[in-house]
Amino acid sequence: PSPGALDVTIMYKGRTVLQKVVGHPSCMFLYGPPDPAVRATDPQQVAFPSPAELPDQKQLRYTEELLRHVAPGLQLELRGPQLWARRMGKCKVYWEVGGPPGSASPSTPACLLPRNCDTPIFDFRVFFR
Predict the structure, then answer these.
(1) Residue 85 and residue 77: Cα distance in Å, rounded?
(2) Using one digit for the tens of pLDDT, what is the confidence trace for 41-78?
(3) What's the pLDDT score for residue 88?
(4) How far is Cα 1 from Cα 118, in angstroms, rounded to an integer?
(5) C-alpha distances in angstroms, 124 versus 81, 96, 104, 110?
(6) What is the rounded CA–CA span in Å between residue 19 and residue 36?
(7) Of 9, 26, 28, 65, which residue is 20 to 30 A from 19 by alpha carbon distance?
(8) pLDDT (tens place) for every residue of the chain, 129 residues total
(9) Are 2 and 54 contacting, i.e. CB atoms less than 8 angstroms apart?
(10) In what order do the strands lie in the sheet with 26-31?
(11) Domains along the chain?
């Protein structure tokens, strides 16, 4: 993606269900239909896909329940060389920095994203060192 764009991949049970390039420096992850009254200055909306194709019905119910509690959303925003996140729903969200390609373990431990608090989760200056 170009500078100021975000390359988004959503996976369920290790399978990619959505790949999208967000043309804004900010996006809002939602579950359900996007808001048609969004202004051009608002974060670009990205809808979590339905988990209906998950083969395990128990996993499908758990995933749907979690996604319902994402509302009113999870926002990611590029601010200069940093990526910030803000969790607004009651569903707990954890983040971690992935390891190098082919690695089975992340580079950082999973961290809980606080609710209604802008949190820096990645600094590209560290990545490009």
Answers:
(1) 6
(2) 789 899 999 998 888 899 889 989 988 888 888 999 99
(3) 93
(4) 24
(5) 5, 14, 22, 19
(6) 22
(7) 65
(8) 556 788 898 888 888 899 999 988 899 999 987 777 777 778 989 999 999 888 889 988 998 998 888 888 899 999 998 999 999 988 889 888 776 666 777 677 889 999 999 999 998 888 776
(9) no
(10) 44-48, 26-31, 74-79, 82-87, 119-123
(11) 6-127 (2.60.200.10)
CB of 71 closer than 8 Å to CB of 65: no
Phi-psi category of 61—alpha, beta or left, where left has phi over 0 and alpha has psi -120 to 50? alpha
Q: Which residues pair with 7 in a beta bridge?
A: 21
Q: Using DSSP, how many helices (H) and how many strands (E) does the chain show?
A: 2, 9
Q: How far apart are CA 115 and CA 118, in angstroms?
A: 9
Q: 13 φ, ψ to 5°?
A: 55, 40
Token reading at 18: 């959505």
